[in-house]
Amino acid sequence: MINWKIRFLNRTFLLQVLGALFLPLLAYQGLAMEDLTSWSSVGDLFIKAFTNPYLLAITAWSVFNAVTDPTVKGIGDSNRAKLYVKPSNK
After folding, report:
1. Which residue stretches of the chain have pLDDT < 70?
2. Which of 6, 24, 39, 62 would disulfide-bridge 20, Cβ 3.0–4.6 Å?
3. Name one Pfam family in it (predicted).
4. How far apart are CA 67 and CA 70, in angstroms?
C-alpha cells in the first residue's frame, strides 16, 4: 500500500510525476518545453500520446518508476512511511 496522502503533500514527488508524464512525451515528439506555448498545444501532445501505444507504454513505465520506492520489496511504501502524517524532513 502506498501512502498517497503524504506523497501528494511532497513537492518533490509531484515534480517527479509531472516530469515522468511530460518528458517522455516531449522527447518522443522532438519538442522542448518552450514549444508548449498554448493550452491547445499541450492538449494536442496528450492526444498524440493516447493514440500511440508505444508512447503510452513508455510514459506509464516512467510514472511507475517515479511512484515506486526501490528500498522496499514490492510496490508499496515501507511500514514506517505508511504511518507518516506529514512528509518526513529526514
Report:
1. none
2. 62
3. Phage_holin_1
4. 9
Domain ranges for the chain: 4-83
Query: What whole-number distance in Å separates Cα of residue 90 and Cα of residue 1?
Result: 21
Residue 21, all three cell numbers:
508524464
Cα distance between residue 83 and residue 64, in whole Å: 22
Neighbours of 4 (CB within 10 A): 11
The three cell numbers locating residue 16: 517527479
Q: By C-alpha distance, which of 5, 16, 11, 8 is closest to 70?
A: 16
Task: Kindly state the helix (H) or strand (E) to which residue 8 belongs, with its residue range.
Answer: helix 4-9
Backbone dihedral region for residue 30 (phi beyond 0: left; psi -120 to 50: alpha; all else: beta): left
Asked if 70 contacts 78 with a C-beta cutoff of 8 angstroms, the reply is: no
The pLDDT, as a whole number, for residue 80 is 86
pLDDT value at residue 71: 84
